[in-house]
């Protein structure tokens, strides 16, 4: 009787395993390799530059559909007078000429703020009589707030506009970044 029970169990196991679905190994799709290069922006979010004054050699950045030049999000703000001014640590800077006519220029700045509570400010000056465009990067902070003392990295692209008819030297906090224009 015991032998019959064992045979029955073995037979039942074989029948059940034969009825089970056979799954074939499917290849696992590989994740795309990560690159440090930024992905291109969709066309509707690309900066568009148009001349603010058609007779001027300086062209201001304009948002699509807007009639006024785009504001630099890091421009000084009205409330900054009540904040304490601080520094920034500049780790890298570059000039980028966009493929447009006339060429549009961006100033790339990579660096660190002294704390996460500091807010970045970047003021772009107009070309002076020496052919220089002075760009000033600094930070502001409300010292009444408690803040962790750790560096806060940033990477920004500042629209400079378009400059034709002359060559201009771009200075960031007094240090030469490069030249733009013809």
Quick structural summary:
The protein is mainly beta and 182 residues long.
How large, in whole angstroms, is the Cα Rg? Answer: 30 Å
Strand content bin = 35-45%
Structural class: mainly beta
Low-confidence regions: 20-29, 34-69
> How is the largest sheet built, in terms of strand order?
1-2-8-5-4
* N to C succession of SSEs: HEEEEEEEEEE
Number of helices, where a helix is a run of at least 4 consecutive DSSP H or I residues = 1
The biggest sheet amounts to:
5 strands, antiparallel
State the distance separating the first and last CA atoms: 102 Å
Fraction of residues in helix = under 10%
General shape: elongated
Mean pLDDT: 74
Count of structural domains: 1
Number of strands: 10
Structural overview:
This protein has 182 residues and is mainly beta. The protein has one domain. It contains one helix and ten strands. It has one helix spanning 2-19; strands at residues 48-50, 58-62, 84-86, 89-98, 104-113, 119-124, 132-141, 152-163, 167-172, 175-181. The strands form two sheets. The protein has a five-stranded antiparallel sheet with strand order 1-2-8-5-4, with no helix packed on it. Strand 6 and strand 7 form a beta hairpin. The longest helix has 18 residues, at 2-19. It is elongated and about 110 Å long. Mean pLDDT is 74; it is low at 20-29 and 34-69.
């Amino acid at each position: 009787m015991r032998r019959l029970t064992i045979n029955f169990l073995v037979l039942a196991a074989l029948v059940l395993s034969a009825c089970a679905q056979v799954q074939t190994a499917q290849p696992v799709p590989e994740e795309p390799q990560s690159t440090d290069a930024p992905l291109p922006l969709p066309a509707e979010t690309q900066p568009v530059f148009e001349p603010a004054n058609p007779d001027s050699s300086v062209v201001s950045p304009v948002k699509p559909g807007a009639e006024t030049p785009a504001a630099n999000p890091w421009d000084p703000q009205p409330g900054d007078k009540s904040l304490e001014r601080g520094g920034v640590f500049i780790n890298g800077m570059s000039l980028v000429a966009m493929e447009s006519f006339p060429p549009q220029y961006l100033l790339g700045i990579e660096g660190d703020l002294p704390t996460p509570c500091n807010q970045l400010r970047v003021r772009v000056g107009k070309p002076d009589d020496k052919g220089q465009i002075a760009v000033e990067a600094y930070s502001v902070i409300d010292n009444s707030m408690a803040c962790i003392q750790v560096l806060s990295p940033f990477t920004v692209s500042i629209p400079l506009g378009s400059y034709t008819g002359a060559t201009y030297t771009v200075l960031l906090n007094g240090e030469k970044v490069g030249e733009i224009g013809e």
